[in-house]
Amino acid sequence: MAVLSVPLASLPLLSLLIGLPLVGAVLLGLLPARQARSFALGVGLVEAVLACGVVWGINPEQAGFQWLEQGRWIPTLHLQYLLGVDGLSALFLPLSALLFVGLVLASTGVQRLPRLYFALLLALEGITIGIFSALDLLLFFLFWELTLIPLYFLVSLWGIGPQRRFAATQYTLWMLGGGVLLLFGFLLVATGHGDWPAATDGFRAPAALLFDLPTLLATPLPPERQWPVFLLLLMGFAVKTPVVPLHIWLPTVAMEGPVVVVAMMTGLKLGAYGLIRFALPLAPQVAQEWYGVLVGLGVVGIFYGGLLALVQSNLRRLLAFASISHVGFVLLGLSTFTVQGVQGALLQLLNFTLIASGLFLLAGFIRQRTDSTELVHLGGLVHSMPKASRFFLFFGLAGMGMPLTAGFPAEQLILLGSLSAYKGAALAAIGGQILGAGYFFHYYRRAFLGPARHRLVVQAVDLLPREWAIMVLLAIPVLVVGIYPGWILHFTQLPVVRWVAQFPGVAP
Amino acid sequence: MVDASWIGLVPLLPALSAGWIGIALLGGWQQGERGERVTARVALWGVGLALGLLLLLDLDALLLARTPGSIALFPWMDTVGYRVMVSFILDPLGLALSTLAALLCWLTVRFAVCYLHREAAFQRFFASLSLFASGLLLFLLAGNAVLAFVGWELMGLTSYLLIGYANERSQATGNATRVLLTNRIGDAGFLAGILFSYVWLGGGEWGDIAGGFALLSSLQLGILAGGFVLAALVKSAQFPFAAWVGRALEGPTPSSAAFYGALMIHAGVFLLLRLQDLIAQSPFLMVVLCLLGLLTVLYGLLVGLVQTDVKSGLIAAGQTQVGWMFLACGLGWFDWAAWHLAAHAGWRLYQVLNAPSYMHLLPGPTRPVWVALHRRQGLYAAAIARFWLDPLTDVLITRPTQNLARDLQSLDDNLVNRLLGNGAMERILFGQLHASRPTEKPGHRQVQGVGLFGALLEALANRLQWLEQLVLRMGGEGSVRSVAQLGDYLLRIDRLFSEPRYLVLMILITFVVAL
Lengths: 508, 515
Description:
The structure holds two protein chains of two kinds.
Chain A: E1 3-4, H1 13-28, H2 36-56, E2 66-74, E3 79-85, H3 92-106, H4 114-133, H5 137-146, H6 148-158, H7 164-192, H8 213-218, H9 223-240, H10 249-256, H11 259-267, H12 270-282, H13 284-289, H14 291-310, H15 315-335, H16 339-370, H17 381-384, H18 386-399, H19 407-421, H20 423-448, H21 455-459, H22 465-483, H23 486-501
Antiparallel strand pairs in A: 1-2, 2-3
Chain B: H1 9-27, H2 32-64, E1 69-79, E2 82-90, H3 92-115, H4 122-141, H5 145-163, H6 170-201, H7 206-210, H8 218-235, H9 244-247, H10 253-262, H11 267-274, H12 276-279, H13 283-306, H14 310-330, H15 334-354, H16 358-361, H17 371-375, H18 377-384, H19 389-419, H20 424-435, H21 451-474, H22 477-497, H23 501-514
Antiparallel strand pairs in B: 1-2
Helix pairs in contact in B: 1-2, 1-4, 2-3, 2-4, 3-4, 3-10, 3-15, 4-5, 5-6, 6-8, 8-11, 10-14, 10-15, 11-15, 13-14, 13-18, 14-15
């Protein structure tokens, strides 16, 4: 369908990143089932190396998108095959690739249709990379909706709960509902440029449909047309993020879905990425005028998620609510429209990808051994699984912004940005930090410390080398960024400065 | 003689030994009694080298008769509006107290090598203690508030780890959690102080903050200094946050001596000393410090008198002394507080380390409780109950939070989930829909709505069906048949497209609604 006209000067690395896992998924069908996992792992590793190459090749000083690939797709509709990344999105690529390596490693004992399972996982990886690199609105939308197919089957076929099909159906419906809103938002943006003759920065908006993000960003809609766009996109992305009160699918999926897949779903907060990339910059004026909505959603999320996490007795549900609370911090950071707040939100998104997935995978490892993540079946895990407990503590501390983990600079920047913009919300968020420590340590104490009472807990084997490797893989970036945040701050600084500069007014 | 930039090594060395012990423990090649010797040596050398370096710097300062002052090494975090240097202050206060702290840490480590011999978690203890030494030295030497906060948090974390040292005992772990959460309140104050100083003063260097009062209104000054004062009050276990220290003695004696007897308990006082220029500008905070210091003195005195075990008694006595220091700070006698701190830290460490041997050291039975206190039953009961500070916290903070969380949970379950179609009923209905093939029974509800949204749609769909049947009834037999055929055809396509019928139905409804 896509007729590529790739500039010869550079390798089509992004297409390669998207295509490789998809081709790998197809090739998996030809392999014997026993080799499915190692093949998927190999593809994942190559993908991770290539994704690092993308980041390596990016010059953060340079404005605009890099690694651009442009091809004609449906010319009559002005649809293009347009890929590219900048400092905001580039870091998500190696992170996703790393995460998928961990997920493939963690997926052992897939007895049912292993080839299909790994094929779907690889397909999901390719599509996810597509989401992070698509610059054409409808191409992005295509990738966005395509994630539903592998996710639906992964949850409904390999889920661990008795109501997995309900969870999968519910998830799909919610996402489709959100998708419809997104589509309409995008169409409004695309058509809104028809009679908009402004030619700022030398750009001339064509008189017809326009889906190409760089041009759209350079020629914003007139303010009176922005609000429906903002509303539709905000709601569309809020469903996926998830934002209270559209969060109900997440705890359900967390309980019913396969742990490995849920680790990815809670880890990669695609909805928040969508807000940064599309919802806010496409309606800059309105987004800024309606900052109260974002602040409100952020603060409510922090407390709603935190308080509910406090009373959960099941680790997987707890992590789902913790994830909602984390998203609240990210939203708060974004709502400030200050460099610090947005940079913090971006770092926090990257950080939570590792932390949330790490914690969820640990929950999976525990569940494999004790058949439960319910509190009544746990207690005293530290005696039989000291390594797992230490990693759990480490990721938990990183989640609450302990110094020397990546959570610290991220949290400092978010709070600093919000404090300079809205004092009350920032102080509330600082209070939310106490809550964050509360739910984590409360659970940690009851599940991990104390005497081991249950046979399965006493007999539990500590992390196997493979599982240990996954945890180290996820923990190292958290620790390295925490000890030396200089590089990542430098890398994201100018892109964030440019991002903030799109918003005309001074933040209130 | 010594380049002052070597100071960076002082907090780093104990951290490195903590890291080495931790990695060796994780890797499993330093376990049990065989590993003890190496572990102890690494911990001792880590703190010992830091102490040696500090002594060299002290000597240098003495010979030159001046301290090196502020040293900025390199930027740690640097972005728009937020720049944190790796900087240190080597003024007389910092240099003297950090030398003392390093010495006391080294003595504690040396003492613990014998004390913890053949303990199962020997390595874990020394990793935590070394990390604590690193955090403490970083806090004392840091040139800016952010770096000091890093040290502060490391102290809090290691305190948690060591209170929960006996992690099979529920009481120990419960107390550890409680202490940590109480300390989080102080951390929040510290954090607020740092952030406000970045927002209002544009930087977090101690010098900027302490000297920044000229740029602030009195309200801003109060808020900024108030955050730090809150942090100091919590960390030094002053009234009304005094109760946590009573729970903190679950760890091995050397850690109790270092944390709550000699070193960490004074961190709050040191914070006040660092910011004395700032705090001295706010008369209100000075009065608060005086009052709370005085209350703590009374609290520690009365609680200490009724304790029946030596460790608790000593720690309560220590709290009293720290209360005096807060009082001194409140009166503006900062130098006096600094001297008091140094003297008290050394003496109390000696006492608490000796505490397990008191049975042997004391010639006779201990004195009974003070008679005057004995006569006043109410006061006695209050002192034993530590003035009910803990139950009060439960009633005022912990329980309301938990109740709120429970209410929210039932709101989430009964309202939000129900409205959005995720209740328990709906799940069961969904299961039934799955189990049974679509039936053609007349009168069977064709559409089953879920949640508020679903219920509205259901009503709409039923209306439409009624309308449709009306149309069908009006039309002739032939049209009915053709429509029925069409329906069959559509149904087949429908089945073809989807296994769960419900899915497509809902997708269509969603699209319709959205359009």
